[in-house]
Specification:
alpha/beta, about 15% strand, 5-stranded parallel sheet
Length: about 280
Amino acid sequence: MATLTGRTIAVPETRELDVFSAMLERRGATVLRCPLVAILDAPDPKPVLDWLHAFSAGSCDDLILLTGEGLRRLLSCIDKNEPSLRDPFVQRLGAVRKITRGPKPARALRELGLKPEVAAESPTTQGVIDSLRAENLQGRAVGVQLYGTEPNRPLIEFLQSAGAQVRTVAPYVYADKLADDAVRDLMQKMAAGSVDIIAFTSTPQIERLFNVGPPELVRAAFEKTEVAAIGPVVADALKRHDIPVRLMPEDSFFMKPLTTAIEQGIGTPNGASQS
């Protein structure tokens, strides 16, 4: 059913751009594809390989996986640089206590026939912290897979204050995808009222808009455009910029539930919005 006919939706996603766009287009939406960031392997694989060697040799008691992309990039680093390390890494991964921030890292573990021992109830950094508050972390070595180069100080400081030894790894980085002129063009379309919704799927997409600016154009863009977020991490990032989120899945934070949330929120007959 073409529930989104007559709606123009901007999609800043990169990795699953075609998948997400197709879901919206099947429902009748006009999709404005605008990949704002690219996800790339860490430019220097050596620190990642050093961490992988140490982890495989038993340097960590626990491993916190913040993203599914992170685990897949760790495996990709092994496959590209040292394939013989894969079996020891996966074997050790099965032996440590695994803590996941949300459904995506849990899904990446399932691809290896593994599952998390601790899954945060809320797929946020605070959710991970809350899930570990009752645990005795004194003297434990905790690996933390970061997303991008974001140091995640709240999580690291919590672990250190609880007596843990923290060993971080950053297996990928975010890079600009669209040229700045194209990003400003997107915001001008939003400010002109030509875009009904922008659907964010990661926090770097948000930061890219605000970094390109200028601020008055960003504000004008969001005044005219409804905002959808794939989950609470992205919604929190938008709220920090005083951008209200109208559309978000309730409990499953993937592309299909986001599409459903958009559908239910604005995909009403004759283009009428729901309150």
